[in-house]
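Project standup — Tuesday

K.O.: blocked on the structure for the chain from last sprint. Re-posting the sequence here as requested.
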Amino acid sequence: MKTKMFIRMSLTMLVTLVLLLIGACSSKSETAATDAKTKVGIVLTEVGLGDRSFNDAAFNGLVKARDEKSIIFDYREPSKDLTPEAAFEEFSEEKFDLIIGLSNTILADMEKVATKYPDQQFLLIDGQSTLPNIASISFRAEEGSYLAGVLAAMASKENRVGFLGGLEIPVLKDFEKGFEQGVLAVNPEATVDVIYAGDFGNPDLGKQIANKMIQENGVDVIYAVAGLTGVGALTEIQDLGKYAIGVDTDQFFIAEKAVLASMLKNVDVSIYNAVNRFIQNNHTFPTKEISEGLAENAVGLTELHNIRLSEEQQKMFDDQKSGISSGQIKIINHP
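H.V.: unblocked you, prediction finished:
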């Protein structure tokens, strides 16, 4: 009897020990797998998440990569308590494999930190740097904006359209010039009003500017390229019964009676692809400067809303789009 009891106890202890060993091995495997994943940090613009535009799109690109288990990532939203420089410094100290920064407005902060950490790899979205450890993705946003201009000219009854930008920076000047050229390609007699808000995060200011452009200047279609400031503009444009073109993400749901289309800058797709290239090339980028446009499906318009093009207009639109993609139509950028 004692012998049988001893055997049962021994078997129980043996099974327990095996389970513990399996658990330990599994835990080590999971830890090793986590450690093997590429660590990516992203510093957003000061507007942060919830802008329904640039920041949200960039974030979604990393979410997709994370969900496919190729990376783990963290993010920082600059504020009065956290400068972009401090955010880049945090990621560098924690030895993230890749650190991403959004927009040319944080270039100086990124370069300060990149100089201190020459072995750290950075990626700048919508800007360029001469530092060897800062790669960049720039979008030929002027190409998508050209199509936005073509659509605005077709929709306008007053021959007067508007461009509402956030900050007057080189990237947005590309948007502006592309839009203006697209408008004039369809209607050389049209007028393009251009106003920069000086702010990407002020919806009330966007409403005020849109109101002025419509009520005082007689604009009936506005291309809003201004983050949350643009979101405010879209709601005001709808309230005044005029038309709008959104940007970066499909903004139709913000003002469903006003938005004709949104000019997509597929930041999510480009960041997702860039991260995968970085991983596949042993944590380096095969090309320091990446430029993507209509031909690469990096920019373009969403499906149309609140407008039905005639056969003649549709042919013109398609011809203009083909001309941009093939390079036959050249867009004159800012100086």
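K.O.: great, moving the ticket to review. The radius of gyration is 25 Å. Residues 39 and 96 are 5 Å apart (CA to CA).
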